[in-house]
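--- STAGE predict ---
source: upstream dedup step, 1 unique chain passed
mode: sequence only
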Amino acid sequence: MRISGLQKMTLLDYPGKVACTVFFGGCNFRCPYCHNADLVFDSGLEPFIAEEEFFTFLSKRKGFLDGVCITGGEPMLQKDLEAFMGRIKEQGFLVKLDTNGSFPDRLEKILDAKLVDYVAMDIKNSKRKYGMTIGIPKYDTTPIEKSVEILKKSTIPYEFRTTLVREYHDLEDIIHMGTWLAGCRSYHLQTFVDSGNLIGKQELHPFGKEEMEQFANLLKTYTKAIYTRGI
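--- STAGE serialize ---
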């Protein structure tokens, strides 16, 4: 396992828990508004953290950290992910997985094996604009739809989340996503932030606080547990 980065403590990434965050490089999507191009393209130039080094760190954090957040890039691209997660669980830590939902069969196996305690899945946009939003024209959203249904039927805590960008999302998209995810356990709307290291070259903009709150209120028609981040 090539660990591309480690945040040794976070109070934000795992809701209600003190955690560390492990970053894996590489992603199968090319969202133009993604804030970390280097991590997505996984150039191989960064100094990777050895797996054993990470587990030595983790063993020293027992009693202090509640869990480990696994993110990317897209962590599901790591072939040894299940073994990695299992080892974390064996040490007594909770595991949170961030994913874009493009590997539903593997997600289901991870859930069935009880290797994860919380899942955060990105919903990039309405189905009609998914391909444009992830940088893959004519993308078939079937895997995404399957992952949504897997999580909605599961008993594990999860959240769906969408980063809203003025150039990619409109009111029709918000309504579509609301009906698509209706009745889900938790849905978070996130404000786009330009990190200065975006994948795309066009100038992109966030929605304002008032607009984000209006979108959230609209979505409560479909799902009661609607939250906003970054406003």
